[in-house]
Batch of 3 targets.
Target 1
Amino acid sequence: MCVVHLVYARQYAVHQDLHLGSGQSFYSSNIAAGCTISLRAQRSAFSSGTIFKEPPSDDPYPQDTSNMKGTIAVEEAIIDQAGVEAHTFAQFQSLMRPGSDETSGLSAHEKRLLDIHDERLKKMDEHGVEYMLLSLTSPGVQGEADAEKGKKMAQVANDYLAGEVKKNPKRFGALAALSMHNAKDAAEELRRAIKELGMFGGLVNDFQSKGAEAYEKVYFDTPEYESFWQTVQELDVPIYFHPRYAIPQDLAAGTKYGDRRHLLGAGVQFHLDLSWHLYAICSSGIFDRFPKVQIVAGHLGEG
């Protein structure tokens, strides 16, 4: 049986040796959900699912951030310098902002994702975020259909992430990007990221694109990925499941999203698509064969 809880904080708290206030508990279920964790909060705050966000400057009800000291932000995207072209948001421009120039990309958003030690750190201080776990933005390596290119992309991104974390390890940690074209490459890179780069786990963006036209979707509940999950259990680190935007084949006329583009993204499509993958993992027997495997589902469990 799979039990879903709202937070997963134990792994990060243990590694960072952060003080935990009284009345807190950590769950040992296989799947947990949540984006932001406050290590000073009582149990009720853990179960509330509150995500702290910056209020607008003219907000008549400004949020009090004085009690947020000790917050760990878990799902925090970056773009690595070497992968700017591959990770550009231009490919999603028409989906995220219909009618806009597809060639321009979301330059302001990309700039924020490229920044780590300047404005991002200032915002962390402003809103009481004590520690942040960085990860490669979606779709990341899962959007690379070529296995060898994907393997290299993951290595480059993880080396970059580790280098940035070393500049300020008291404030930043990282989750590893993984090429999921095959279990061997995924397991080897996860092991390298944990043992050599000091990362806290891995992050995958739903399914792995594959094939000459990137039309094939690879999910990770099949027997081919047994050795990967065995490695995850051996390393005792979580794997974060993050959504991704619909791919071209799912946007053709006559498809469910092609005719209903207003449902794309965080409103509906993210949690519908990723929850299917999570259900597949739950029903595959992976947690029976590897009971110590931990999966984190963002956005309060993707529905």
Note: Residues 2 and 282 are 6 Å apart (CA to CA).
Target 2
Amino acid sequence: MTRGPREHARVPPASRRSRGASLAPVNVIIAEVVRRRRVSFAEFMELALYHPKAGYYTQRRTGEGPAGRSGDFLTAPTASPIFGRTLAELVRQLAATLGEPVSFVELGAGEGVLLAGVLEQLGERRGDVLRRALAVETGEWARKRIGKRCKGVEVTSRLSEASWPAGPVVLFASELYDALPVHRVTVLGQQQGYALAEYFVEPDGKGGLRWALGEPSTSDVLRYLREHGLTLEEGQVAEIRPQVRAIHAEHLAWCGSDAVAFVVDYGHISRKLYDPRARRHGSLVGYRAHALVEEVLAGLGIGLVAGTSLGYLLAKSDRAERLLSPYIVASQAIPVVAVAPLLIIWLGPGHLSKILISALIVFFPILISTIAGIRSVPHDLRDLMRSLRATRWQTLRLLEVPAAAPFLLGGLKIGSTLAVIGAVVGEFVGADEGLGFLVNLGRGLYDTALVFAALLVLVAIALSLYSLAALLERRALSWRGKEGP
């Protein structure tokens, strides 16, 4: 088979990357690929995630694990104990309904944070609710942490290694199956007969890795596509996990017929997941953070600094106001939706363009609020500060900022909601991820539920920011006391 492009996703050699201990896992994985000469992307992903010494989930860690507040999963139990407590209450109610304790099994237990939260919530009722608690985790370092964190819990690397359960079982897995390796495939062009090809990873001869295309490494890929009635378009890329069904069936077989499986994972039905209009380049994305919130906060911060700084200048200088005001007003006459494509073209579709769009939409209300606030300071108080020989800095800190604070904080409340709009506009215009992208995707697929879900999250973010701004206003202006008689 004719091979396709080989350089478009090349991993740079170690000599061109930053030095340090963080490179060790990368070098180990590259060395393993060099030893094997060529691996499918599924095998490469297996190495990257589960290599005994260099895997993302299995390598030994000294601090927090890969999930949580400083990691990549916002829904991780380290982000909040609420989910673990809720799960404990569900298990307790189930045991009470059955009239006997259950065996609780967590697949992919990580460091045992969620399981510890479940056990803590059950407390003294644990013996009445749980007959047995079992944690399944691949990483040896993580299994040791589970043993220290969760007393009286069985820990194993595979469910099949544990003894068969007695009585009812609750099988729980959170974000487990979406972390399994995938086969990455595409459809070649007319010259290659529209054949299905699989992505492989091989050494590039320069210390790095590169893509290569070849025939599918397993017939399970074709079988999966046929069973789901899927036909990929020319050039479309898709990720496939044909092994998930067999793995899940093995887990259910271990549990027996008297069991409840509670699986929390990301996913879509096949028609949506493999729709070329939505995911022509596949759905394999590595998230380092949840971008929208960062874009909103960064845009709000830049707009706040720029608006207050320029607003103070215009409020203090009539000449600067006469010179700059026409340009500022003219800039606001141009819709942000019209400016956004230019920023995307100039700066690219990354975070910077979204942040600037958010800052642009926040800037004007903050500017106007600052001008109004500074000019609201009574002249007799300014005369008093001059009579006391106050410096400009003392006048700003002791008089102008406190007097203008109601205007400034009012502008902040408005800007906090507009920042969300700015970030979403940027995602509307050019993005392949984020809530704005989801709204566009739901519109194209006529998926009302997806659109409403994205809108509700946007509303929640906006309300949270507004509430924080309102709380800051109450705290900052508490010195004024209550108005009225």
Note: The CA atoms of residues 167 and 463 lie 46 Å apart.
Target 3
Amino acid sequence: MSASPLIWGPSGGKWLPANGTNGQALTTDGSGNISLNNYISTGKAPTVQTFTSGSGTYTTPTSPAPIFIRVRMVGGGGGGSGSGTASIGAGGNGAATTFGASLLSAGAGAAGVVGGQGGSGGSASLGAGPIGTALVGGSGQGCSYQSTNPTNLMGGSGGSSAFGGGGGGGSNTQASATPVGLAGATNTGGGGGGAGGNNNATYTTGCGGGAGGFVDAVIGSPAATYSYSVGTSGSGGTAGTSGYAGGAGGSGYIEVTEYYASASSVLTAPTQQTFTSGSGTYTRPSSPSPLYIKVTLTGGGGGGQSGEGSGTNFRGGGGGGAGGTSIFYVSSPSATYSYSVGGGGVASTTGGATTFGTATANGGGASTGTQAIAGLGGTASGGTSNITGGDGCPGSEGIATIQGGAGGTGGASFWGGGGGGAAGGSASAGNAANAYGTGGGGGGGGNSPGAGAAGKSGYIIVEEFYQ
């Protein structure tokens, strides 16, 4: 006779199966037959799949299958333009990165053009279902131009994504410097740097390429497969007469992290609440209530300064500083917390502070006074990790009214690169900041100097975890 226990019901007795294992339950097929079956996945650490090039099909793991996946990805960066006195090559645009066709899209960074502004950052979007953050990439820095009184000029820097990676602008030809624009870092989506210059008259330096857009999204109950495509980088512009080549952009990237249920309970996919402006009260979900929350808050970015239109230097305006970022976890969170999101500073104005509970992320500083002084990054306090925002870049020096210097790029925040500085020698305004908390770009210097651009507002994201 079996040693298994006997269970008695209205239809008589049934011998139970042998003892099961943790994570199993008794089930019936409706005809009185009883068996042991797994009712949840066994405990397993998260797994990761990465895609660094090409296109294909992502396959969701099975046995066990993840309860949710987190996708972080960036589009390809645009290339920086070349430099020279004539026949200068523009950079190439990057290509978009996609996951699930139109489900998630991180757009391409635009190329740096010849004799103008830096490339714009790529767009980003979430389709129906996923939750998360979609950010426009950082813009590239504009070029500098000279027609008389030869000097040596710098190329514009490439924009940075949330993964960083913008290529530096080419230096001048003095002191064994490198005039060629530097490439954006591989798999960051950073823009390529513009080429530097020499002391030829009527010389134009290269503009930096824009960074690819960025997506950080959670997909609950994922499908069995998703198509994907990793954006390629934009090519660097070719060298013009007596000039140098621009740097290529950084290629795109996809990272998929797969999360599983523990061995003791069923996992609920995390939820999120985001705040992009104003103040109010965060309310913790109930039924169920999260076991803990992760809070990330960033201060507003500082505004860039206008270019110089008189004096002797005709320098481009400095870029604004980025807001600081505070990150922390709260176990058994309270029902409510007060919050306030700092606004982005207008031209030459400091960004506002962002607060959540007792944590503070200060806004980035403004570029004020002498154009050579850029805004400083804001500090942060009250979190487990407190990150100071990036400083803005000072404007570059010009020589005469029509040879103004390029504006400085705004500082980078936790969320990506700042607004690119404007081209010199024109009335071009600095590029507005796109990613949360980043600094605005400085205006171009010259006879009709350009205005400084506003910094981007701060941001709060509260991620709610149930297991």
Note: The longest strand covers residues 68-74.
